[in-house]
């Protein structure tokens, strides 16, 4: 920084009030009124760096310049500790187009979007398979799914709403995009992106053990959409329908594509299918909107409805399940292959008693209400007890009424927790309390019957302060019992039965008067991490 001088603009001449200009003499310094650039630093985003300071000593005769080299500390919360990527400290000189390279540069950079990395994806499949067959096609999360000639395309809007075909589909990254594309009846048969062949003509490179093979993309279903929006599912999917002109219409135009990828636990793609929505355009049509989607499913598993991704969404049901039979409770942390057994009905995994219109508990038996995340609920009924009822049998009936037939053992901590990830499931703790404790005469018959079930779900905000995710950390089911004395013959007694759910946010202060920690509300400049991604 001692050699940098941003105000030195004139060659071999002294710039006025430029205190760092080496061309200025002492006589010229005496005429300065101030230093136009008092501090010279390198990158202002660094946490600590050297700074050159310039000032004028006006008390001296004649006035003279004072130079100091000091350590400058950046007070910003976000700063760069070390700039160790030397190539980013300067811009590389772009290639100068020539008559020989112009066509190649135009092909690479002439479109609306471009990337210098696409050439590395379009590799020679034979050489790639022979040189790196052990590691290349065992996919990891987010890695572009490679095909024989490039990668699986998932068109998406980039700068504007127009489709860019250069968006690769990432492994295990579920995506859904919509974009617009220019079309015309005269050119419809020559536009590749509106043809089914464009999306299935290349095979996916996959790997099984030590062998690399190709997985063809099959057609799973074809839906034809009329001009007025009516959709019809075709019976035969094996017929490839290409765009064609028919009576001033262009039919079989691709309006939507949905990829379905099946993979193994080791990251090996074993099956790929595509579902199409085809339509027609008229001569007046200038553009169409296309929709694209890709989803992934592990082999030998069934799709389980989610309640958030990753955190719970308010109003969606809490996901719950059971441990497999024969496994201890709780599940051992080392046993991650057993998984959690869930019901396919997401609204029936964790439920409470649903109130009946006549408040009769016997009439409400079997009616359940789902526990929805973030919703505090209470329900109840009334039970009429007579002297002829057996207490022990009545207690079991009420317990089944409160808990239901299949009360779960585990609750998913996140809305998208997978069944095989046992560490992502929270065991339900059970407590038993009594409304009152009395000492009865041994000749007086008395027993305890359950009268209420309270489920407390403790959750916390997890992740970024900007977009916190709801995570369940503890679930407690408390059954409260009450003593039931033997009734005289002919007498009746009415007992209220209640069931409730309470959600407690333990990430917020629980004690009154407790001062929460201050948060930082700042916005980084758009180029703060340049040239890093």
UniProtKB/TrEMBL annotation:
Start and end residues of each Tectonic-1-3 N-terminal domain: 2-101
Coiled-coil residues: none
Keyword rRNA-binding attributed: no
Parts of the chain that traverse the membrane: none
InterPro entries named in the record: TCTN1-3 (IPR040354), TCTN1-3_dom (IPR011677), TCTN1-3_N (IPR057724)
Any single biological process term in GO: cilium assembly
GO annotation, cellular component aspect: MKS complex
Domain Tectonic-1-3: 138-299, 308-505
Keywords: Cilium biogenesis/degradation, Glycoprotein, Signal
Sequence similarity: Belongs to the tectonic family.
Subunit structure: Part of the tectonic-like complex (also named B9 complex).
PANTHER family xref list: TECTONIC FAMILY MEMBER, TECTONIC-1
Protein name listed in UniProt: TECT1 protein
